């Protein structure tokens, strides 16, 4: 092999190493959102039986999921039935959101920006009261881990267990977490926000102009 050929091969190896390093940095998740893990084929693990979840549910002490409202609810969500993480009850998602201004917060227990944002969501809910429903959607099949994380954070918002991420797929939410979807009372999507929030003030600034006098 000639000297020039050896130098060409060496240069190619260096370029490949540099490209791999750049790819690693871009995919490291250091920004405000984390890319979700692969989508599960089920909503929760086999290990997350009602008996196994009893103690984590008691510690999390989540607020009840919304009951059915007036009307059919958001068209894109009709036919989706998920488990309420707080008590294990089935929730017809579209019916539960019917007639309500809703902030859907999509998250997963392993997502660090999600954990930082959830207390701000809880504070926003406290401020707006019954005018707006803040409903979190856990997008990983490990329901025990979700309940444990919420208990650690002291966040008691109503939560849907959505390991297959059916809500995100139905509403065409970008594949990042956390993400927030603002739904008007008529079921239409006011905005999809694939970003994290650091405070209730930031959430209010982003959400309130979209819902008007809810």
From TrEMBL:
It comes from the Bacteria. SUPFAM superfamilies: Thioredoxin-like. Residues 57-212 form the Thioredoxin domain. One of its GO terms (cellular component) is cell envelope. InterPro entries: Redoxin, Thioredoxin-like_sf, Thioredoxin_CS, Thioredoxin_domain, Thioredoxin_ResA/DsbE_sf. Residues 27-67 are annotated as: Disordered. The keyword Cell inner membrane does not apply. It is found in: Cell envelope. It holds the Pfam family Redoxin. Keywords: Cytochrome c-type biogenesis, Disulfide bond, Isomerase, Redox-active center, Signal-anchor, Transmembrane. GO terms for biological process: cytochrome complex assembly. Residues 27-38 have a biased composition (Polar residues). GO terms for molecular function: isomerase activity; oxidoreductase activity. The keyword NAD does not apply. Residues 49-67 have a biased composition (Low complexity). This is Thiol-disulfide isomerase-like thioredoxin.
